[in-house]
Design a protein that fits this description.
elongated; alpha+beta; single chain; 33% helix; Outer membrane lipoprotein wza fold like; three-stranded antiparallel β-sheet; wza like fold
Amino acid sequence: MKKINSRYYKYFSIGILLLLFSSCGINSSLMLKIPRESEPKPDSLKTVQEKYYRLYDKDSVPLLLREDFRMSIDDKFTFSLSTNDGKNILEGMTGIGQSSGGGGTSIEYLITTDGKTMLPVVGEVSLLGLTIKQGEDSLKKMFSKHYLDPFVQIKVTNKRVIVFPGEGGQARVIYLKNNNTTIMEIIAESGGISPRGKTKSIKLIRFIDGRRVIYPIDLSSINGLMYADLYVQANDYIYVEPTPNIAAELLKQTAPILGIISSVFVVFSIVNNLK
């Protein structure tokens, strides 16, 4: 009977170990892992990289804005309109004349999936891909058919940056209040880098020419000051790579199974002693 029990314990233990290794999802929440250069890249990965993203080294990080913000699908904006090249706005600000305001509107408009927006008076317009200045010039030209010397100002209201500070459950969507917001301001507004975040492994992910480009940023040393004044752009992702927490994750994954194993062995020990 002891030999049978010993053999049973052996097979049972092997089965439990296999169950443990097959069910563990250690640090499975880590995102956007970059394959090591030494690892061979399968054709499917190469195809995905060529189509959807491009990796750059740290020397390629654009420290200055290369181009103005361009309006895209799902952008929301307001615009103000005044005649006589904005004369009413100036009079309202200075108290000159009888005007008390800018004579404009503050309704929010949406650029739909076809790249167009329906505006009062001028009807359907296309602002997709235009900078703020180009959009203002375009609307000025359209409204000039109905008003004398129109003065137009556009404000995009949902320009945002998504920040992953290095800890699960702490991602933030930060709305840009101005065009000259730096990466340090965004990190500060998101609450800073989490204790698990790797300051030497930060990815700035930006949409350029139809695909995402990934710039690595290192803020772990004083040399990282060169990136401190890097301007972010609307729809950027800032991803701080978290430090793998293997011990805690292993304990979390295996605790329920270890509890079952302990209970089963206690039952077998009791039954064995009764024989």
